[in-house]
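step=encode ok
step=design start
structure_in=
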């Protein structure tokens, strides 16, 4: 599963304006609603429900919120960067500044897990994360996310 299959250029938020985990999830749900055509509230509720099971803040400034929705036809990804970092209840208690949202159809099964693993591998690369932190535009972030996957596949 390639990152380019998950995310489109309009799914990049280079400067997320949020001061809390809840605000970040609301803004991500708003953008995901525009891309998927689903209701913002429905997406937000699924993300909150997942966070109640345990934080998706995986450490090192990274969060990978995710959820499944009945009416999705395919996997969708969004990426956001917060300049200041957001308190996200991360496992290492550090603020989060890189967020990759993943939404999947209810029926996605193994594809959802493969996509989570792919995103996790990409964001475990410290060099890639440092470059993402230095990107200023959505186009630069998108290019890096897509380029990053091809160098990992080689």
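sequence_out=
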């Amino acid at each position: 599963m390639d990152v380019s299959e998950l995310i489109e250029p309009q799914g990049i938020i280079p400067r997320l304006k949020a001061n809390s985990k809840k605000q970040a999830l609301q803004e991500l749900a708003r953008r995901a609603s525009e891309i998927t055509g689903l209701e913002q509230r429905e997406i937000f509720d699924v993300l909150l429900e997942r966070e109640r099971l345990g934080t998706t803040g995986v450490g090192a400034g990274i969060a990978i919120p995710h959820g499944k929705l009945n009416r999705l036809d395919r996997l969708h990804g969004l990426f956001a960067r917060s300049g200041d970092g957001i308190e996200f209840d991360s496992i290492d208690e550090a603020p989060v500044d890189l967020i990759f949202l993943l939404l999947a159809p209810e029926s996605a099964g193994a594809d959802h897990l493969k996509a989570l693993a792919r995103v996790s591998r990409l964001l475990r690369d410290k060099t890639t994360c440092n470059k993402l932190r230095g990107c200023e535009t959505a186009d630069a972030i998108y290019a890096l996310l897509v380029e990053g996957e091809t160098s990992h596949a080689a």
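step=design ok
step=annotate ok -> The chain has one domain: 3-153.
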